[in-house]
Amino acid sequence: MQQILNFLIKNSYKLLFLLLLGISLTLTIKSHSYHRSQYINSSNAVSGYTYNQINSVKEYFGLRQKNEDLARENARLKEILFNKKDTILEGKIVVPDILSDFKVHQAKVIKNSYSKQENFLTLDRGSLAGLKTDMAVISDKGVVGIIEKTTKNFATVISILHTKNPLNGKIKNSNHFGSLTWDGKNAGYVQLIDVPKLATLKKGDTIVTGAQSYIFPENIPVGKIDRIFIEKATNKFVINVRLFNDMTSLGYVYIIENKKKREKEILEAATEKDPTK
After folding, report:
1. Alpha-carbon distance 109 to 130, whole Å?
2. Does the 65-268 domain belong in CATH 2.40.10.340?
3. What is the DSSP string of 159-196?
4. Coil, strand or helix: which one is 240?
5. Per-residue pLDDT tens digits for 21-63
6. Which residues pair with 118 in a beta bridge?
């Protein structure tokens, strides 16, 4: 208490000046409409700026939740689309014909390699979220890879940029198919091999997933034809495909569960072992 009194006595002149200044400003504002309007406008401007900055900070910290909500909603919409007979524009996801065959999950890439010969990704979802081995992984632009292993809360994905992970692919306009592989050289390109010379194709044609896959729905975009070669040993096409995905920058992805995958595998395995063939 004594310190407060000492402070007031020591700064009495300054405090008196500030008090009188405040009284004079108040009287001026109250007695003159111009000064009053200027004061109100200035107060509104200051408070408006302050509220705007506070709101911007709140929105910034809320972006992560908004992104997760949007990804979850996209997963729900993709599930509807994958189970509806329809097609959409080139470069977007093409919808399969079979009703209720597919379930779509959403996850985020938290680790991504793309400079090795055998590249993997890690997702922030696992078996507790319904993810299982051999599920397809895609983004809004196309194929990403296949789930390799899961724990309760995480999953690893074999990237399409993997020299030992061939996928079934086809030329969209001709339906001729081959194997999608990666030569380990450029993260922006994969190769479609074993395509017969009878296939009609040209630079710029779209490459999509084929119907022979147990894992991917048919017609998921992969990329566009960039260059075409003939392999002398097999006399078949080797096609350099520029990926739609930027595999060096992946955020949210979608995991596709084919509910009839196991049934198809069992049937085809039994057919191949049939002794009457």
Report:
1. 16
2. yes
3. EEEETT--EEEEETTT--EEEEE--SS-TTEEEEEEE-
4. strand
5. 666 666 665 665 554 555 445 544 444 445 455 545 545 555 6
6. 162
